Amino acid sequence: MPKITLPDGSVKEFAAPPSVADVAASIGPGLAKAALAGNVDGKIVDTSHRIDGDSSLAIVTAKDPAGLDVLRHSTAHLLAYAVKELFPAAQVTIGPVIEDGFYYDFSYKRPFTPEDLQAIEQKMAELAKKDEPVTRKLMSRDDAVAYFKALGEHYKAEIIASIPAEQDISLYTEGRFTDLCRGPHVPSTGKLKVFKLMKVAGAYWRGDSKNFTASSRLHSSRATGRSRFASSPMRFSMATRSSGVKGRLYAKS
Predict the structure, then answer these.
(1) Domain around 81
(2) 44-61, pLDDT tens digit by residue?
(3) What whole-number distance in Å separates Cα of residue 139 and Cα of residue 213?
(4) Greater confidence, 59 or 228?
């Protein structure tokens, strides 16, 4: 019977291991709706994470710094999902959170254009509105390499192949898109409401100028309120290189 200690010192007991979402729902419907993740004994986890023993728990919402990181990270995946829907031949690489947003690198046959950015952002909004569940699964390193190779995602397979063989790999799926990620992520795409694609710039694969296989880096921002973008038009920049480096997309968050 796990005992869950909340930030105010109160303790909730459960007959079976609860998920973070279960605990949030037991506190109230408002918190259940706002929950993005959980802080279990100092570790940020998905709301689907089950708590097996006595633990301390704080529900993470958009008001928390950790919540903003989860939103940015999840919006980066939404960006990749949208790109794959519009440009199926594009290959995904990496999409980390940065200080004021996030970016995601893609390999594609041509640079992305300002018109592409508008279409991608619109597709992101459409996918977010569908409120598709975001689910996590574990896979062995070798199985994950084979999985992404079968999808034609050779950059992702290369990244996974560099991970120790004994280490399990976590994959996150939303709709028709699956990506490598440690997480955590929002429970569904409907939590992602405010974002703005800012620019595209050139990028070398793994930062090596000898890698002529070019990538496009999309930069984006994800904010906590729409007013932040009221006077901020989309900015676009394209880096050109004789080696054929394409673009890198940036966004704000």
Answers:
(1) 62-253
(2) 999 999 999 999 999 999
(3) 28
(4) 59
Instruction: Work out the average pLDDT over 17-41.
Output: 98
Please give the structure tokens belonging to residue 235: 């900015």
| Rounded Cα–Cα distance for residues 172 and 31 (Å) | 24
Helical spans, DSSP H, in 100-233: 114-129, 141-150, 154-161
Residue 175: what are its φ and ψ, rounded to 5°? 60, -125
Tokens read off for 79: 């960006």
Asked which of 12-21, 169-178, 227-236 is least confident by mean pLDDT, the reply is 227-236
Mention every residue, 6+ apart, whose C-beta is less than 8 A from residue 115. none
The H or E element that residue 22 is part of is: helix 20-27
Counted domains in the chain: 2
Taken in order 85, 192, 252, 119, the sign of the CA dihedral is positive
Report how far apart the first and last C-alpha atoms of the chain are (Å, whole number): 40
Average pLDDT score, the chain: 83
pTM: 0.84
Same domain, 71 and 125: yes
The domain that contains 26 carries what CATH number?
A: 3.10.20.30
